[in-house]
Structure formats: structure tokens, C-alpha cells
């Protein structure tokens, strides 16, 4: 059976580490809340002169170099981002050019923080269509530039970063087994950047903060804890796998309390969950790919092991993938 | 009292966009304001301190505290 095998992974985090204590524009008495409420201790912030595609390019190069895979052999690039370089063209196009992937088509997807799971599903489907032998999937985010810097409700939570996966077709038992994708558009306002699109063009906005990311924290926490658990149950049920078959869980790195709730809800030891949000914060759709790359590179996750990836975010949207590494 | 209340009413939609049109009265508990949570409440604390020049204790904005209790605190410190 044709399968989409993870041939290589890569990631890139900006060098600048910003600890909670360095967020000096917030009240010092409130800084302790960041770790208590989210588990985030520090995040990476990209330089002012860089944009989302710069991170994507570095993650992609890391991925290709590990596999010694020539860029000109890439057939397609799918890039997940909810913090694109520009409204148009697709951020993926600059990545394609800078990589020298001259034979690849390139386009963006945006499912906000769940873009990792949606992108894995899209890449898998493109390969299983039989039309493509390989797809480079990248997730890259630079939330430092779409967050209102004085908003304590959002700014301390996020960080910048990018991850990449090179999928190739194969006939072994490795690869993407199954994906579940869900959307509830009735709650599309719960996480959004209100202005800058056709719904509220910049010249029509009456409050500058409408140009920045905002999130209804309580509502999103409740949604993520509930659906983040349920989607894993549905994924396993649909694929016929048992919870005990799964070696590792890589859940969107939004908040340690959400991950704790999901682990508890599934009845799975937290030791089976890959965690890096303490160091990187929430890197939106990049978080799962960054965690996957780190876990594979450090031999924490080994070839042949069964991994569940799951993510949740704006849309509202959520998804999960079952992958044998 | 009314001046402080009016200032708070004007700041709420800026700090909590989902609260646009939400009635802010002295008896309104802060934790009923749409988008209010322990993190976003820090934005309200910063606003009060910068606008009224008072130091807001951490526990004042927790639990069932009402808008009126915040106003009373600010007037006592004034």
C-alpha cells in the first residue's frame, strides 16, 4: 500500500531567547502568572528585519540537509502559517524560490494553530493521490509581529519558530495512517485578527488593536481541553488502533495545563507527551513540527514508533494524525 | 464615582473587544466581562494604575470583585 513516509524533519528557532522576567513592560508582580497559567518560561523572538518565510527557509534547509535531498527534486511545498509574510502572494512562494525548489508548486494553508495536523493530512493526501512522490510540508509562524505587545493576555504566551517534514511515498508500514480534521466555524471570533482583511479593512477600523491577534482565553482553554482529548479518541477509533499502541503524543504546545488535562482525560502518562512549550512558548502551527523534529533528532522518538499528533486553534479547528515514524 | 465609572466603561471595549456593548455597572462582577481571565485582567490592572496613578493590589481583581468595589478602592487611594 502506498504510504506517506516521514523521510526527514527539520526545525528552526530564532536565536534570541526572551525569558518571562525580560518582559519588563508588564507589571513585575504579574510575571509569575505566565508560568502558573501557561507553563511558558521563555520564548524565541525573531529579529525585526526577518519575516515568516525566513524561518521557514531555515527549517526547510535543515530538513533537506539531514536527508541530503536536493531542493530541485521537491515536487510540492505546502506551508502552514497564520502569520504570513503578506496577505498575498503565498509565503510558500518565497520559500520555494530561496530553497531553489524550482520544480515544486508551492501554496499556503491557514488553519491557525491546528495547521500542523491539517497540513500533514494535505501532504499525505497529495502523495496518496499518486500524482506526487514527495511533498515538503513546512509550518512557520512569527506571532511576535501580529501580537499587541502590551496585551498580557496574549503576548507572553507565544513565540516564533518553524518546523518542516519531508514526506516521500513508500510501501513500508511506516507513514501517515490516518487523520481526523474538525472545524466549528460558529466560533470563528474566539481567535482572530479582526482587521486587515475584507471584513474590516484597515481604513475602516476604529481601534488600532483590531489589527492585532486576540483570543478569548477562557473559551479557548475549555474548547482545547475538551476537543483536544476527544479528537485523539476519535482518531484511534477510526483507525482501529488502541491507546496502548501509541508510543508518543505530540500535542499542540499551547499551554501545559491543557496538555495535563488531555493526558488526564485520556488516562495516559504525561511521560508519553513531548513538551517544549516551556522553552519556546506557543509557536502556533509550528509547535507540533518543532516538537516532532526535536524528539526525532534527540532519538526520543525512534523509527517504527507510533505517534499521535494533535492540535487545536482558531476556526475553531482541531485535528489529529496517526503516524508510524 | 461617575467619572471613574465612565472612564472604565470607555476602556473596557479597548481591553476586551468582545465586551463591546456589554453593560458595565457598579454591581457588575469583573469576571463576567467577556474575555476576562487571569491573564487579560492584568491589562485592566495596568490601565487603572496608569490612568489613576494608584497601585492596584493583585487580589483586588480576583474572584467576585465588582466594578463598584474597584471604583471605591480608587477613590480611597485618591
Question: Topology of this protein?
Answer:
The complex is a heterodimer of chains A (325) and B (78).
Chain A: E1 3-12, E2 17-19, H1 31-38, E3 42-44, H2 52-67, E4 76-80, H3 91-99, E5 105-109, H4 115-128, E6 134-141, E7 161-170, E8 175-183, E9 191-192, E10 214-215, H5 217-239, E11 248-251, H6 256-266, H7 277-280, H8 287-297, E12 306-313, E13 317-324
Parallel strand pairs in A: 4-5, 4-6, 11-12
Antiparallel strand pairs in A: 1-7, 2-3, 6-7, 8-13, 9-10, 12-13
Helix pairs in contact in A: 2-3, 5-6
Chain B: H1 2-15, H2 41-52, H3 67-77
Helix pairs in contact in B: 1-2
CATH topology heading of the largest domain in chain A: Peroxisomal Thiolase, Chain A, domain 1
Number of strands of chain A: 13
Rg over C-alpha atoms of chain B, rounded to the nearest angstrom: 11 Å
Question: What characteristic shape of chain B results from the CA principal axes?
Answer: globular
Poorly predicted spans of chain B: none
First-to-last CA distance of chain A? 16 Å
CATH class placement of the largest domain in chain A:
Alpha Beta
Tell me about the biggest sheet of chain B?
A: none
Q: Which of globular, elongated, flat, extended, rod-shaped describes the shape of chain A?
A: globular
Average pLDDT rating of chain A: 96
Percent of residues in helices of chain B: 40-55%
CATH superfamily of chain B: ACP-like
What's the architecture of the largest domain in chain A in CATH terms?
3-Layer(aba) Sandwich
